[in-house]
Amino acid sequence: MSLITSIQKYSIHDGDGIRTTVFFKGCLLKCLWCHNPETQCFKPQLLCDSERCAGCGSCAVVCPQNAVREEAGKMVTDRKLCTGCGTCVDSCNLNLREVAGKEYTVSELVKELRKDEMFYEESGGGVTLSGGEVMMADMDYVEELVKRLDRMGISVAIDTCGQAPYENFERLLPYTDTFLYDIKTMDNEIHKKYMGMGNEQILENLERISSKGARIYIRIPVIREVNGTKEDMEEIIRYLREKQIRVANINLLPYHNTGSGKYEKLGLTYGGTKLHAPSGEEMEQFVTLFKQSGFQNVKIGG
Ligand code: SF4
Ligand code: SF4
């Protein structure tokens, strides 16, 4: 069984055509600007819009962990005690509480994904498994899911940060049309500083799936402080060329802080406040750099 935080329909930025994107919960990286912070932790998590809390106390009454207490007229959830059980969700008349992380059986999930089959067929789309990090989910579950989608002729794309054991990639390779594979920076120290871990395994996995013939879209979140110089992009280009990575597409994704509002609801602090997107002109220059280096399918955005 795997925890899923959401299923997003009609996605047009997660691979070819119209896709339904499944967000799995849990990721080993801790990117400071993560747009989906509710997918980082491997356990269910409570989100609460405390700013709008009326202090009625209904959630405190039902909480089996006594995790909710009053502080200055508002109800505050002790994150160390909260198990994300969800008992309090329906108690809030203002609908301020929700839990990220729901279990689906493979059959339930396939049933849900098949509802959009008509859109996949018409647009050349399919299903994208994302996160969090789908390659760190229960791999028996994920393998069964992709096999069943494959048997039904539904295209599967894997959106990955690459930080997972190679064996997991190997299991999915025969059933995966496209890997949407993130590269953030070639500088290992910068990688550790902004992503919480080095990039060794990420690059090794990329080289190995490429050598096995995987179809790969390289996705680069472009952030001034992380990889925003011409030299940073040239290093990535040099790496892709030297390792002869089979690149079908390159997507340059300018930094944005969508998702920063979710941190407070999770009782977390957004770590990306000092990060910036490059200018439009700089982004265009990066596109030109890739094109001049022989990568023609490069664009800004997903
Ligand atoms: S999710 Fe469960 S443990 Fe957490 S505050 Fe609500 S009722 Fe209590
Ligand atoms: S039930 Fe909702 S409004 Fe009432 S105290 Fe809990 S979070 Fe606040």
What does this entry look like structurally?
GO terms for molecular function: 4 iron, 4 sulfur cluster binding; glycyl-radical enzyme activating activity; metal ion binding. Its cofactor is [4Fe-4S] cluster. The chain has 302 residues and is α/β, with parallel strands linked by helices. The chain folds into two domains: 2-42 and 102-300, TIM Barrel, CATH 3.20.20; 47-100, Alpha-Beta Plaits (2-Layer Sandwich), CATH 3.30.70.20. The chain contains eleven helices and 13 strands. It has a nine-stranded mixed sheet. The protein has a two-stranded antiparallel sheet with strand order 3-6. Strand 4 (68-71) and strand 5 (74-77) form a beta hairpin. Helix 9 packs parallel to helix 11 (280-292). Bound molecules: iron/sulfur cluster (SF4) (2 copies). One iron/sulfur cluster binds at residues 48, 53-59, 75, 91-92, 94, 96-97.
Question: What's a quick, concise take on this entry?
Answer:
This protein is of the alpha/beta class and 302 residues long. The chain has eleven helices and 13 strands. The chain has helices spanning 58-62, 106-114, 117-123, 139-151, 166-172, 188-195, 200-211, 224-227, 230-242, 260-265, 280-292; strands spanning 2-11, 19-24, 45-48, 68-71, 74-77, 97-100, 102-104, 126-130, 155-160, 178-182, 216-222, 247-254, 298-300.
